[in-house]
Amino acid sequence: MFSHVFVGVSDFERALAFYRPLMASLGIAERFCDAARAWAGWQVPGQARPLFVVGRPWDGHGHAPGNGQMAAFLAADRATVARAHALALAHGGSDEGAPGLRPDYHAHYYGAYFRDPDGNKLCVVCHDAPPDAGSPSP
């Protein structure tokens, strides 16, 4: 559905220090990084698209996060959601909602919300039931 998502940043080096460990924790590979142009992009290994790109705004004006805009990353499991949230906070992000179920969305929606150092809102979510769901308790 998407070609790419671009998120503006004001401090490219700070953004790299935030996004590199976050993307690695989600298994999303860095495709390019051009410090001279102040942009970098990541993709799921083996797929050309979509790309997630961060960089300075093209028009040269300062970055300002939008209200109501958010990029959400798919996680393989709930533990990955928790790890990504912790990594984000450890690398300069701010908490917008701890890892947990959000049954208002659907029964198995397990997500965490945070902002990057520039204030861009992000989510990491797993939509799957836990592996032991439906198994009888011992």
Q: If you had to describe this structure to a student in words, what would you say it looks like?
A:
The chain has 138 residues and is α/β, with parallel strands linked by helices. The protein has one domain: 2,3-Dihydroxybiphenyl 1,2-Dioxygenase, domain 1 (Roll), CATH 3.10.180.10. The strands form two sheets. It has a four-stranded mixed sheet, with helices on one face. The protein has a four-stranded mixed sheet with strand order 5-8-7-6, with helices on one face. It is globular. The model has no long low-confidence stretch (mean pLDDT 93).
Q: What profile does the largest beta sheet have?
A: 4 strands, mixed
Distance between the termini: 43 Å
Per DSSP, the total helix count is 2
The CATH homologous superfamily: 2,3-Dihydroxybiphenyl 1,2-Dioxygenase, domain 1
Average pLDDT metric: 93
Q: Could you tell me the radius of gyration in angstroms? A: 16 Å
Question: Which percent band covers the strand fraction?
Answer: 25-35%
SSE pattern, N- to C-terminal: EHEEEEHEEE
Report the structural category: alpha/beta
Can you tell me the residue ranges where pLDDT is under 50 for at least 5 consecutive residues? none
CATH class designation: Alpha Beta
Determine the CATH topology. 2,3-Dihydroxybiphenyl 1,2-Dioxygenase, domain 1
Question: Which characteristics define this entry?
Answer:
four-stranded mixed β-sheet; 138 residues; 2,3-Dihydroxybiphenyl 1,2-Dioxygenase, domain 1; alpha/beta
